[in-house]
């Protein structure tokens, strides 16, 4: 059953990736059969990994610099894929780190500008701003909320294999 769900996530990501929001510039064709290490899931030409270990955004950024990045959610389809990856894990976490930081500048830690946005209601906060973004469980991990970068949450990594 879990393998069937993984195949469905991959298929939906490949089919709908370029259709979402019309905002993604495609520079290469998606690879239907990329090889990812065991325990990771493929979406388009990247491998994704949900890790329930908790750490701060800054510590994760420095740890992942050589082995991948915190996930940059660039399209609605990728957001749906990442959300299903987290939900399928059965986690009881309320927040999961993604690669977005300093929401006022709307940039990702790996240098991409954000054109796709999925902020929760009243986010990013101007009253009590956090400078790092997390996916929140109240939206089934589809919406973002800014949080203090020192908070310790689980996370999703994205890397090319």
From TrEMBL:
InterPro entries: C-type_lectin-like, C-type_lectin-like/link_sf, C-type_lectin/snaclec_domain, C-type_lectin_CS, CTDL_fold. One of its GO terms (cellular component) is extracellular region. It comes from Propithecus coquereli (Coquerel's sifaka). Keywords: Disulfide bond, Lectin, Signal. Pfam families: Lectin_C. This is C-type lectin domain-containing protein. SMART domains: CLECT (SM00034). Residues 43-158 form the C-type lectin domain. The keyword Disulfide bond applies. The lineage of its organism: Eukaryota, Metazoa, Chordata, Craniata, Vertebrata. Residues 1-22 form the signal peptide. GO terms for molecular function: carbohydrate binding. The keyword Phosphoprotein does not apply.
